[in-house]
Amino acid sequence: MKRILTFGTYDLLHVGHVRLLKRAAALGSHLTVGVSSDELNISKKGRGPVYSTAERMEIIRSLNCVDHAFVEHSLEAKGDYIREHKADVLVMGDDWEGRFDIFKDLCEVVYLPRTEGISTTYLISSISENKKLAVGDV
Ligand code: CTP
Q1: pTM of the shown model
Q2: Those residues with Cβ within 8 angstroms of residue 85's Cβ, 6 or more apart along the chain or in another chain
Q3: Yes or no: domain 3-137 corresponds to CATH 3.30.420.240
Q4: Distance, CA 1 to ligand 1 centroid (Å)?
């Protein structure tokens, strides 16, 4: 069975994250998650995560669908991570569509559709504006 690898920040874990991870896990028999470091997020998204790397790792590792998690320190090292974790399939959300096709010589590359209407960025702005999240909207 296939070994699956995916990457992300997974800050303020939400249903879009959980659905992505469950769908990724269902593509194989072993799911590894690269959780991006605080430093990587500051360079990638221009802000640090609300939860620290250690907290995000603990949350991701607690999910039944996740078999292994490691800290992703560099965006440029994806090829090394694919080899190191012996991934058969690299799974990314379709916000990254096409961006990882360069790794198709190392493994299968699959882009899964994002869940509409939710993101960490949206949660942060909702909380800071004190908006009520309507349950069932997602
Ligand atoms: N994801 C998803 N559906 C969403 C949000 C995220 O499927 N609504 C997926 C992303 O495509 C990615 C993984 O979850 O594969 C981790 O995404 P991450 O960037 O950590 O979460 P976002 O909510 O997109 O964070 P931000 O708003 O900070 O960009």
Answers
A1: 0.93
A2: 3, 5, 32, 68, 70
A3: no
A4: 26
